[in-house]
Amino acid sequence: MQFIPDVLQKIITDSIINYVGNKYIMKGVLHMSKGAAIVLTFFLGGLGIHRFLTGKIGTGILWLLTGGVFGIGWLVDFIKVCMGKFTDKNGNPWGTN
What we know:
Blueprint: H1 6-15, E1 17-20, E2 23-26, H2 34-44, H3 49-53, H4 57-70, H5 72-83
Antiparallel strand pairs: 1-2
Helix pairs in contact: 2-5, 4-5
């Protein structure tokens, strides 16, 4: 990882990616503040980005291919994020930090 500055490497390593051997490995869940989670879900929820960030890869792909299950799934997820009820793949509340 000599091509990545040390500061950026620290941010990447501490947030969502581990560098093991010669590979990047996703930790699976990105935790963020409630405000950031709301904004991200509002603007990118139709593409399922919030689901990928919480480790829900299968439904993330479904959201991506169907436009947030035709907008209905996006709306449900958006309301759940706003209420603090949306969980990551481990069942922990997401967007409550």
